[in-house]
Design goal:
Elements: H1 3-13, H2 30-34, H3 45-52, E1 60-64, E2 76-84, E3 89-98, E4 101-110, E5 114-119, H4 125-139, H5 145-158, E6 163-167, H6 181-190, H7 192-216, E7 220-223, H8 233-253, E8 257-261, E9 282-284, H9 297-303, E10 309-314, H10 316-321, H11 324-340, E11 345-349, H12 359-375
Parallel strand pairs: 1-6, 6-7, 7-8, 8-9, 9-10, 10-11
Antiparallel strand pairs: 2-3, 3-4, 4-5
Helix pairs in contact: 4-7, 5-7, 6-7, 7-8, 11-12
Length: 377
């Protein structure tokens, strides 16, 4: 059985043989260090693939879409990079222009520290008008083969034997990732009418992107959603849950599975049952304090539908600071609870692993899974 078959079968059906799949990639830095690099933005997918091959694990590889501005001639997107702080900082500034105006974003990349967006394209209600115009232009596009071909190229990189996720800001509430999470929440409250119009247009765009992605050969598409440190349950009730139901149904009709990653506090959303309503197939992560705020993995299992496969949830703090023996013990407890409670759970970290994560601790997670499966044959 290939890694792809093993992963997909477990997400759909569970099974006696448990899986270890530590999160490597996504610009977090662990694969960067293993490739002997120091800049997160210079990490390649091949670096990520090479990193996963060092461990006895079943990887999930994530890819993004090409810039949506490449689908229409109405918009021009340009980036410039400047170097500062004695060569230790790169600032990437991007302009997004059309006849309606120009939006600007800024990303800071610090050597050995990682990337952080410090300025987003959409900051106020006036900027929403340009985003709205962009969506109108995209909805005029008849040919989305550029998206399909991009996904096919990504599939070639990892091969047919590995599982693949394609992600963009599919959740309409995220507004294509153009504003920050905090500004998104404010815009939803202060400019609700244009906000909802834009969400509806993004949902229509998602239908095209989902179909194109499925044709390209992806297994999963990504559904976002901020934790409780960013928004209130009201936003889940009014925006995230109802729109998620629609886009996840679209994806399921095309044979795609839904992968959702929320590495921040998920209570009280978990207790209120929102994630059970959103059409999620693979959900991470059920992390206790200090990474998240769930009471325990047992408590989280009791509140999350058994139809949903979960992934996690050894804390990044533990992987950075504890010994392999301690990690092995924590991994064993998670595996025991998975089997005892009859759940579909994939052992992993609480998030994508940091630059300084101890390699021996990742091996300890994999060894615990291997030993547990051997004991329970």
């Amino acid at each position: 059985m290939t890694n792809r078959e093993k992963f997909l079968n477990y997400v759909k059906n569970g099974g006696n043989e448990l899986i270890c799949s530590p999160q490597i990639g996504a610009g977090a830095g662990f694969d960067t260090r293993l490739a002997n690099k120091t800049w997160m933005t210079q990490t390649t997918m091949q670096d990520t693939i090479n990193a996963t091959k060092m461990f006895d694990m079943v990887p999930l590889y994530n890819f993004g879409l090409p810039a949506l501005s490449s689908l229409t001639s109405e918009f021009k997107e340009e980036s410039t990079t400047t170097i500062s702080h004695e060569g230790k900082r790169r600032t990437i500034e991007t302009t997004f222009s059309c006849k309606k105006g120009t939006l600007r974003s800024k990303l800071i990349d610090e050597e050995l520290k990682g990337c952080c967006p410090t300025e987003f394209f959409v900051k106020d209600e006036e900027d929403l008008k340009i985003l709205d115009y962009f969506l109108d232009a995209l909805l005029e596009v008849k040919d989305f083969s550029l998206i399909t071909e991009s996904v096919k190229e990504s599939r070639k990189i990892i091969g047919d034997d590995n599982v693949m996720d394609v992600q963009w800001a599919m959740q309409p509430y995220e507004l294509l990732g153009f504003p920050s999470t905090m500004d998104t929440a404010i815009l939803a409250m202060e400019a609700e009418d244009p906000f909802r119009v834009i969400m509806d247009k993004i949902m229509k765009l998602d239908e095209h992107l989902i179909k194109a992605t499925a044709k390209g050969g992806s297994d999963f598409v990504f559904l976002g959603g901020p934790g409780s440190e960013m928004i209130s349950p009201t936003y889940y009730e009014e925006f995230l849950v109802p729109y998620s139901k629609i886009v996840t149904e679209m994806a399921h009709k095309e044979g795609l599975l839904i992968y959702s990653h929320i590495c921040s506090p998920i209570e009280p959303m978990l207790t209120k049952g929102y994630y059970n309503q959103m059409g999620i197939d693979l959900f991470e992560t059920l992390s206790p304090y200090p990474v998240g705020n769930v009471k325990s993995i047992e408590d989280a299992f009791s509140k999350l539908s058994p139809e949903i496969c979960t992934r996690g949830n050894i804390g990044l703090d533990s992987l950075l600071n504890e010994t392999p023996e301690q990690i092995y013990e924590k991994a064993w407890h998670i595996l025991e609870m998975t089997k005892k409670m009859g759940r579909k759970h994939i052992l992993a970290a609480s998030d994508y692993m940091f630059y300084d994560t101890k390699t021996e601790n990742v091996h300890a997670m994999c060894k615990a899974t291997r030993d547990f499966n051997e004991k329970n044959k």
